[in-house]
Amino acid sequence: HYVHNPHEVFSITIASQKIYIITSPKDVSGVYKNSQTLTFDGFIKDLYANFGMSATSVTQMFEPVAFKDGKASSPLHQRYAHLATGIQKEQLHPGENLDSLFGTYLDHFKRQMDWDKIPSSCTIQVSPGKKVVSLRNWCANVFGEATAAAFFGNALLELNPRLLEDFHTFDSASWMLLYQYPRVFGKPVFAAMERGTQAFTRYFELPIEKRTTMCHYIKTV
Fold first, then answer.
1. Contact 115, 131 (CB under 8 A)
2. Phi, psi at residue 11, to the nearest 5°?
3. What does the alpha-carbon distance between residue 33 and residue 18 come to, in Å, rounded to a whole number?
4. Rounded distance, CA 198 to CA 165, Å?
5. CB atoms within 10 A of CB 146
6. What is the mean pLDDT of residues 26-40?
7. CA distances from residue 23 to 1, 5, 28, 42 in whole angstroms, order as listed
8. Higher pLDDT, 17 or 169
9. Would you say 88 and 220 are in contact if contact means Cβ atoms under 8 Å apart?
10. What pLDDT was estimated at residue 156?
């Protein structure tokens, strides 16, 4: 059966939880298109909780967005968690919003390709007319700075210049969060997450006039 895989849906049970395995491209496509009866809401709720969100806040994220008069703000009666996805699509749809992001990314790429602007943290060896650069570190640095600037402007990294370092520390072992790894065994990772959370909290507490360069997605959410 393993060698002659008929791509049938099957399930396995791990720690009393049943997990369905889908290998057929057709079935995978059907799952993604069926957003009414099959959703990622359960996974998202668990993820919110693992990040420290209270049960009340998680519940509110999945309540329909409404105006004060009680009328839904969307004809689809979207929930906050789903509404954010729609706004993200607006940001990435071809047009002014996407052009703004694209321009910021290009500016950062060009600047960090400049000989004198290559970060020392990415440089392995320097000799006359030559620099050996870690491609991994350079990509992590340029994409991190570009993303922070494109979405949040300069204010976020000004609040916490170590934010990218904390992000990479967390990202390298973020599986600990997904699999509810005991925090006592992953103190550096969870400490980095906490510092990142504090940085974002301080960012959104800033007066709006100090966050004017944030992108459409962040501004709207």
1. yes
2. -135, 155
3. 22
4. 14
5. 19
6. 81
7. 13, 9, 7, 21
8. 169
9. no
10. 93
